[in-house]
Amino acid sequence: MPIGVPQVLYEFSDDDYDDDYDDDYDAEEEDEDDEWVDVYTRLYQEGVLFLADEIDSELSNEIISAMLYLNMVDPTQDQYVFINSPGGSILYGMGIYDTMEFVSADADVHTICFGVARSMASLLLVGGVENKRMAFPHAWHVERTGQPLWVIERDIERDHFMSAREAKGYGIVDEIVDEFPTLEFDEFDEI
Q1: Cβ distance 173 to 134 under 8 Å?
Q2: Residues near 110 by Cβ (< 8 Å), separated by ≥ 6?
Q3: How far is CA 134 from the centre of its chain?
Q4: What does CATH list as the number for 39-176?
Q5: 62, 99, 143, 190 - which has most CB atoms within 10 Å?
């Protein structure tokens, strides 16, 4: 049974926010000024983007437009691209890659692999800012990084699967994380 897209509180009214945890919070007494949005919208507003499908024109346009919009609103806000993708179109993937390069002029683009980053998705994973590319220990990667050209050519001849540890040694990711990384957000800032 699908649960739908969860709604999260986007903005507190002045009466709701208190530095101390309120043990007497009652969801029934929500202020009419509280604004609720779907969880994806809230995450996008904080620079968290998901590339979790095959890279095609639709997904590429969604990622590119979100990155450009966030960069337009605040060019210094870091962006976090979570990747779980079998790869896909090189044409559309290069559009995402170029956008990552563009927005990283004033802010960092972090790339985090959860699951797989194969083919074009592995290029996007390695396209994150150096020392801000991560993978969970169970993540697998295919193809590409800063190896000598002959190594890359050999490895992309066929899909070359790697564990997270192998991907770190190869240079695709900079860090292997065992828990979800703490993301620095300005809590409840209005965009």
Answers
A1: yes
A2: 78, 79, 80, 81, 128, 129, 132, 133, 134
A3: 10
A4: 3.90.226.10
A5: 143
Structure tokens at 99: 């956008």
Whether the full predicted model's pTM is greater than 0.85, yes or no, is no
Query: Could you tell me the residue ranges of all domains in the chain?
Result: 39-176
Q: Tally the residues of the chain.
A: 191
Amino acid (1-letter code) at residue 189: D
- Burial-class residue 72 by CB neighbours within 10 Å (0-12, 13-18, 19+): exposed
pLDDT by position in tens, the chain (length 191): 456 777 777 764 455 445 554 555 555 555 666 788 888 888 888 999 999 999 999 999 999 999 999 999 999 999 999 999 999 999 999 999 999 999 988 999 999 998 888 889 989 999 999 889 998 866 554 344 556 656 665 665 566 677 788 878 877 788 887 776 666 655 545 54
| Structural element, H or E, at residue 181 | none
Backbone angles phi, psi at 157, to 5 degrees: -55, -40
Q: Which residues pair with 81 in a beta bridge?
A: 49, 111
Strands 161-162 and 140-142: antiparallel
Q: Are 50 and 73 in contact (CB under 8 A)?
A: no
